[in-house]
Specification:
Five copies of one chain form a homopentamer.
Chain A: E1 2-11, E2 24-29, E3 41-45, E4 54-59, E5 77-82, E6 85-88
Parallel strand pairs in A: 3-5
Antiparallel strand pairs in A: 1-2, 1-4, 2-3, 4-5
C-alpha cells in the first residue's frame, strides 16, 4: 500500500453511477525518505480521513475488495487506514547517504 | 484514480472488436503539484468528457468494471468522472518546498 | 492504454506453451508530449501491427481479456489497435511550457 | 516481486476491518544496482520479517492470494519471503557503467 | 511484458509455503534504448533461464496464470520466455535523438 497525505477533495457531478456514493479525496503519495513524490491520486475514502492526515492507500484490483464484493465497482485506489504512528529506522532507511 | 486532462482524441480502424464501440480519449495525467507528468494515456470515455476538461481516470483491472461485467473487455483506463471542483490544501501539499 | 511505437520483434523458442502462438512485438511507449519514454515493453500483437506504427496497448490483467477468456494466459501487454489519426490540442497539452 | 528493505512499522487504529489483523511494515524497495529507490510502501507481513531485513514483496492482485482466498481483502503488497542470500553477477548487472 | 536481464539468484528459507517450490531469479528490466532501467525485480523462473540471459517477464495478475490456475499463488512476476533474437528498428526507436 502507499503512504500518502490527504491534500484535498474533488467534486464531480458527471460520473459513473457505480462511484456516485463515494467520497473522493486527493492524495499525495510519499516517496523515498517519506518526501512527497509521484502522481497525485484520487482515492475513495472508507475510513473518514481528513485534510493533512497521513493515510494508507490500497491500489489496483485489491482496492475493489474494500467495497461490495459481488458487484465490483471501477475504483483503483482506496484509503484503508489512517496512520496513528510511524516508526522508521533511520539507519536502515538509506537517509544518511 | 488519476487526475488527468483530456488533450485529444485517437482514431483507430484496425482494432479488437471488443473495443470497437468505445470513444477513446488521449489524456495527460497530473503529477506532483498538479503539473502534467507521466505517460500520455488512452482512456475510454464513459461520461462524455471533452477537450481540456479535468477528469478522473480509473486504471487497471478495475477499469473493466465500468463496462459489461459478464464479458470483460481489454480496457485498462476509463474516464469515470469529470471534475467540477478541486479543493487543494496548499499548506499540506508540499508546494512551498 | 498506452500509446506506443512498434520498434521491433522478439523471438523466443524456450517459452511457456501458453504463449507459444503469439506474435511478440517490441514497443516503446510515448510519454509526456508524445516523446518516447519509459521502459521498452514486449506486447502480443492482435491486430497485425508493423514496424514504426503507432499503436494502442492494453496492459495488466485486462490484456488477458483479448485472448481466450476461459483459459487465461500469462500475457500482460497486448496491442489492441493501430492508430489512424491522433488529434492533440496543443494549448491544453502543456507543450508550450 | 520487489526486493525491499524493512525500514519501519506503521500503526493505524482507524482502518478497514478486513485488514485489522495484519502486521503492517514500512518497506523501501531497491532499484537499479540494489540502491534504495522508488516510493516507500506499506506491506503486510506474512513471514515474521524484522527491521533492516531484506525481503521479497508481492504486489497487486497476486498479493491477495497470500491470505484467505475465498474472502479477498484489500491488500496490494505483502512480504512473502525473507532473503537469506542474494547472488548478483556484477558483470551482467550494468554496475560498471 | 518486460525485457530484462537475469542478473542473479535469491534464496529465502522463511517464505510463504505457496511459493516454496519456485526458483527465484533477480532480474534487471531494460528501459529506453534497451539500457538497464527501473527497479531490480525478483521473478519466478518457468523456462530455465540462466545468468546473463535476456528474458521476457510477465508481471501482475497475469503472472499467476503461468502456474496452477485453480489455486492461485502470490507471484507477480514470472519469466515466460528466453529471448533468442531481438530485432530493433533503429530509425523508429528514437535512438538518434
Amino acid at each position: 500500500m502507499l503512504l500518502a497525505k490527504v491534500i484535498g477533495n474533488v467534486w464531480s457531478t458527471k460520473k459513473k453511477d457505480a462511484i456516485s456514493a463515494l467520497r473522493l479525496l486527493v492524495i499525495q503519495p510519499l516517496g523515498k525518505n517519506l518526501k512527497p513524490d509521484g502522481n497525485v491520486l484520487v482515492a475513495a475514502d472508507e475510513v473518514g480521513a481528513g485534510f493533512g492526515e497521513l493515510v494508507i492507500v490500497t491500489q489496483g484490483s485489491p482496492a475493489m475488495q474494500a467495497f461490495n464484493k459481488t458487484d465490483l465497482i471501477p475504483v483503483d485506489a482506496v484509503v484503508v487506514g489512517i496512520v496513528d504512528n510511524l516508526e522508521i529506522a533511520d539507519d536502515v532507511a538509506g537517509k544518511k547517504k
